[in-house]
Design a protein that fits this description.
11 helices, single chain, elongated
């Protein structure tokens, strides 16, 4: 028998008690912030595009544009932690409908972004080049300057090399889209599922063919930002549409 003030509970109450709404909200805001910060980095890049070839030219450019260059590299690199939060939230949201795909998407999608934080290199430069630029300017002989220019060339070559972590992240986006598409009960719009699949396929191709077909990489960048923005909006809506379970109908007990 239920006593005064007790409520009936059901599956919806158990689902609401999980308390994942703050995670969805933080991940959604993080996805939107991720896109905003990368757009800011792109604006700085357009205002003062750094050289992508030539160690000496790059080091001299950094010496003349050090504050802007450092700010741009931070904006390219530091936000990489935010996709980890996004993929974690997607895992939680999709786990109940597509366990294997959700877990695989988290591993392939989130781990590469975390690994990128260990190497301060972006496709448009590196914070390591700032140190080399300082040493290049301070060098007293041509031989010393040549050493630093050669080291810069090696970092620039790494920037222009297809990254396996980038391809893995694209696979994670593809798997997340597949999980949304197969999980008919998932609280995500179908267009987001198809957008994820298209972004993932183009992302894998663009990373593998970066040198042969660089235009693929530009198209992938646009789709990638669109996917993160759409996913962020979807997660914010999910956090607001799935509040703690509403109280069930109160059953009153008027006595024995």
């Amino acid at each position: 028998m239920t006593g005064p003030g007790t409520t009936a509970s059901g599956p919806s109450a158990q689902h609401g008690a999980q308390g994942w709404q703050p995670l969805y909200l933080l991940a959604g805001v993080g996805a939107l912030l991720f896109v905003f910060l990368l757009v800011a980095a792109l604006v700085l890049d357009l205002l003062a595009p750094p050289p992508v070839h030539g160690g000496e030219a790059t080091l001299l450019f950094i010496a003349d544009n050090k504050p802007g260059y450092v700010a741009e590299q931070i904006l390219w690199i530091l936000p990489n932690i935010l996709p980890v939060l996004v993929f974690t939230a997607l895992f939680v949201a999709l786990f109940t409908v597509q366990k294997s795909l959700a877990l695989t998407a988290l591993i392939f999608g989130g781990l590469p972004w975390a690994l990128l934080l260990a190497v301060p290199v972006s496709s448009r430069g590196s914070l390591n080049l700032v140190y080399l630029s300082d040493r290049y300017v301070a060098a007293a002989t041509d031989e010393e300057r040549q050493v630093y220019a050669t080291a810069a060339e090696a970092i620039i070559a790494e920037n222009n090399t297809p990254a396996i972590v980038g391809a893995l992240s694209a696979v994670g986006i593809l798997l997340a889209g597949a999980a949304m598409l197969k999980g008919h009960q998932a609280d995500f719009p179908r267009f987001l599922a198809w957008l994820g699949i298209a972004t993932g396929v183009l992302g894998v191709l663009s990373e593998v063919l970066r040198q042969a077909l660089p235009e693929f990489y530009g198209g992938y960048g646009v789709l990638l930002w669109a996917w993160f923005a759409a996913t962020g909006i979807a997660l914010v809506r999910l956090s607001r549409s799935a509040p703690l379970a509403p109280a069930g109908r109160r059953i009153r007990d008027f006595g024995p």
